[in-house]
Specification:
The chain is an alpha+beta fold. 21% of the residues lie in helices and 21% in strands. It has a six-stranded antiparallel sheet with strand order 1-6-2-3-4-5. β3 and β4 form a beta hairpin. α1 crosses α2. The N and C termini lie close together (7 Å).
Length: 175
């Protein structure tokens, strides 16, 4: 199974400023949005029904309802929580897998960036890379809807001098 980076990017460009009615909406929606884009790119889900393992969502929630009306068992923590998706990608050996890289210039469209704004080891935000110009990634995001934003977020209210970036290159082939 192959990762369709173009499909993931197109999804992000389509839904960055609105919500797909086929998915739940979270108050903090960044990772849900990134997960949807990854799924649109063909990333395989695994781990159901264990919320603490794998990366998955079911179709068991009512489309169009708000977050507090959903049964709690319909998605994994890694689907919806930035800190959890970072750790999932760091350790997954099958299904949706990625490699952590240490330079933004190693990323390409369809890859994922995580932000630890305080530098305290807790991931606060996630985005999907939708373009790269001269080795610099530009991203799309939810929670605060963003399109074609420079990855460093230095213009963000959440930015601090302690910010830590976690760059993940999504594998092109899934096993």
């Amino acid at each position: 199974m192959y990762y369709d980076r173009d499909a993931a990017v197109q999804y992000a460009k389509t839904w960055w400023n609105s919500f797909n009615p086929n998915y739940p909406v979270f108050t903090v929606d960044c990772t849900n949005f990134v997960s949807q884009a990854l799924r649109a790119g063909g990333a395989p889900m695994s781990g159901y029904p264990n919320r603490g393992k794998g990366w998955w969502i079911t179709d068991g929630w009512k489309a169009g309802a708000r977050e507090y009306h959903y049964p709690r068992e319909t998605w994994s923590y890694s689907w919806s929580v930035a800190h959890s998706l970072r750790w999932y990608l760091e350790s997954a050996k099958t299904g949706l897998t990625a490699k952590r890289v240490y330079s933004p210039s190693e990323l390409e469209p369809g890859d994922v960036i995580f932000y630890d704004f305080q530098g305290d080891g807790v991931i606060d935000h996630s985005v999907i890379v939708t373009s790269v110009f001269d080795g610099v990634p530009y991203v799309h995001a939810h929670t605060g809807p963003s399109a074609n934003r420079h990855y460093d977020y230095s213009d963000s209210y959440a930015y601090t001098p302690n910010i830590q970036y976690y760059f993940f290159k999504i594998d092109d082939i899934f096993y």
